[in-house]
Amino acid sequence: MESIHAFDGMMSLAQIDRLYFSGQGRTQPRCRMRLLCAHGYAQQTHETTKHQVPWGETIYWLGSKGAALLAGMQGQSLKQFQWRKQPRYSQIAHDLAVNNFRLDIAEAVASNPSLRLREWQPESEFLAQPDVVTITLPNGRTKKRQVRPDGFFIIEQTGHSSPYAFLLEIDMGSEDNPRFGREKVLPGLAYLKSAAYHKRFGLRYGRFLIVTTGERRLQNMKAQAERLGGGGLFYFTTFDQISPSTIIDQPIWQLAGETALRPIVPVAR
Known about the structure:
By secondary structure, the chain is α+β, with helices and mostly antiparallel strands. The protein has helices at 2-6, 13-20, 28-38, 64-73, 92-110, 123-128, 180-192, 195-201, 215-227, and strands spanning 11-12, 42-44, 59-62, 115-122, 131-136, 142-147, 151-157, 164-170, 207-212, 234-238, 253-255, 261-262.
């Protein structure tokens, strides 16, 4: 239940199996979750909502008893406790992709003794306490924008005094995205320089990681980042390149402003 809450309030059966049962596809995770649902500690998709869930997936989120238990562990009442009462059905595929990315990062870090995942802040924390920046559009007009990445995480590396800080954007679109520069690059650049970012994380640096569906869309967004001054600050890759063995230290990432592929953390082997 703590993991479901930590993973932005929703996990799939496959993700729970992967996290706690070594991803063997055995019956234990299903039986365990069935019992939690039967006693009101968790909820799951049922016949009336199945059509809103990606084929083959079973989705779980907290029930009121589970939320009350976690609230008590934090010294809060259920009324005070912030929790997701149901999935965002229109974004389930996106939210599952965020969870899978987070699990890949966790597995990659766990497999390398020189790395440590210091923290992960999910999107819900940015939604609950949004940061606002002012951006200047190409036409000279200014506009306020909320910055709400899909996650923020820090990786520490033995022997390095400064950790690596990343802000995640999962992009599920399949067509070119002409608004990427205005909606993500300009606010992202302003955020990294802002007092709000420094106050929230105690850092004055960071990199954006953009994971998208295909090479054409990637190149379109990369070109926008480069045109708007995002060189060196935006990494791009596609879903088919990502696995626990590649996500951190393999050259699968395209950095705005460069042509060579890079890892996001150079790890000595």
